[in-house]
Amino acid sequence: MTPREEQEAIARTRRNRNRALGLALLFLVVLFYAITFVKFTV
Amino acid sequence: MSFNPASPAPSPAPAIQLPADWRDFVALTKPRVMSLVVFTGLCGLLAAPGHIHPVLGFAAILCIALGAGGAAALNQWWEADIDALMKRTAKRPLPTGRMARSDARDFGIALSCASVGIMGLAIHWLAAIVLALSIVYYAVVYTIWLKPRTPQNIVIGGGAGAFPPLIGWIAVTGEITAMPVLLFAIIFLWTPPHFWALALFVRTDYANAGIPMLPVVAGQAATRRQILIYSLVLLPVTLAPWAIGGAGAIYGVSALALSALFVALALPVAFRRSGEGDPMRQEKRLFGYSVLYLFVLFGALVADRLVLA
To answer: Does the ipTM surpass 0.90?
Structure first.
């Protein structure tokens, strides 16, 4: 693997990690909203 | 093409160390174990008398799953050196060096705290306390304290895996009664024969890693005897929910048939001897059946509750 390919692989892994973290946080936001809605309306 | 010993062999290109991928973090939570934890937790939740809003029910199961994942991450953080010595665990993210140990520790702590916090705030603080207890039990009492010290590690450590149906039940009812304690007892008694059947056919792995599993310390004969004893004790305990009126005939008949088959499969394991190169078919069959057993038994409990409802 050339240094350039190496850098690309590292950047790709970091990008995928950030996307996964973003999705997890988005999911938690939706979940907290749903929990709050249920607890204060039902 | 001829080989010239005088010429140096081309050295392989040094492997680059990529930062841990998100899949490594998922692997850290032991997803296969988590599936059983989620299933038994869900069964506890569905079998409990009462009603929980589906969103809160989903949040409760998510908390149980996150708690189990956090405890599994902390387990792998602590046992990274041991995992590297065993074939079964050598490809995990920490032994292969794909992830820093501190990352696994921090991930485990974050998952554990988040699961307990959400459970307490959204569902019930008693459920959150029991969830926290189960995480500490697995990560500290079992992993750090018992596993490297005593051949009874599996017996006492089995308690950690027995918590999910109890937590699921408490999430609905908000209290601890005889039924969820019986569900706890079923998994507690099921764990030793399940793991000892596995330990019999991966005995050398545990011996190489220096873990005092029963087959390594007490020998095969004692382990086989213990498997049978626990299978025999498990049978009446699985019938107890039916006997006390906590479950109906669907569960009762299923529990009787499943547990009788468990004993029938444990018998040949108990009374045989194995030597070097033994394929261990009976032990593997018992191990495979023990996984199916728990799924079907708890499935029958839920089916019974749905029919009664």
So the answer is: no
